Amino acid sequence: MNEKNSLGLNKCFLDEDNPFKLFENWFDEAKKKEINDPNALALGTVGREGIPSVRMVLLKGFDKNGFVFYTNLNSQKGNEIKENPNASMCFHWKSLLRQIRIVGTLKQVDDKTADDYYNSRAYESRIGAWASKQSSILENRKQLLKALDDFRNKYKDKENVPRPKHWSGWNLKPSSIEFWLDGDNRIHERLKYILDKNNKWTKVILSP
After folding, report:
1. How far is 62 from 39, CA to CA, in rounded Å?
2. Mean pLDDT, the chain, integer
3. Annotated catalytic residue: which of 121, 163, 186, 190?
4. Considering 84, 99, 108, 138, which has the largest number of Cβ atoms within 10 A of its Cβ?
5. What is the pLDDT of residue 2?
6. What percent of the chain has pLDDT above 90?
7. How far, in Å, CA of 143 to CA of 205, rounded?
8. Rounded to the nearest 5 degrees, what angle is found at the Cα of 100, between the Cα atoms of 79 and 108?
9. What is the mean pLDDT of the segment spanning 27-48?
10. d(Cα 18, Cα 21) in Å, to the nearest integer?
11. pLDDT at residue 178, rounded to an integer
């Protein structure tokens, strides 16, 4: 018989009152089991026209304040976030038969945080942040390749490539976090944490 937690859910849900601790536990397991990019997540945003847009990004940090990813601030996602900071994230770890859904509000990270992460990136990735006008239409592929060469020539010192002002990170501060485990016959197990008006997390079990 499978072991259960105090709520009658699979023991992998643990008995944590803090969803960040449960996330950390699941994320650590994903890093051991997922072949590629266990930090990949689907990010959903909505601009002023009300049309949803979803794309994959990489989680680059998390703590009690939220979940962080980086991007060109003038990209489609960047512009939509400026228009509407409400967003959602979904992690899907097929190897573990688990997913995590997070809903919250995005806020740009401070300059030092962005600088520290940017400076940890490979040289070509830092050059790419300068050369790519993310989401804009290219006349042809050569236009992008020329821009890459131009910025390589401009920033030849690989240890000294400044962060573009249009490139930074966003932190998603969650208002709810749902943990999902695949179940036999589609009878899945779902545990949702909801942040109340007193900034306390409450737990509820959801029907599959």
Report:
1. 11
2. 96
3. 186
4. 99
5. 72
6. 98
7. 52
8. 30
9. 96
10. 6
11. 98
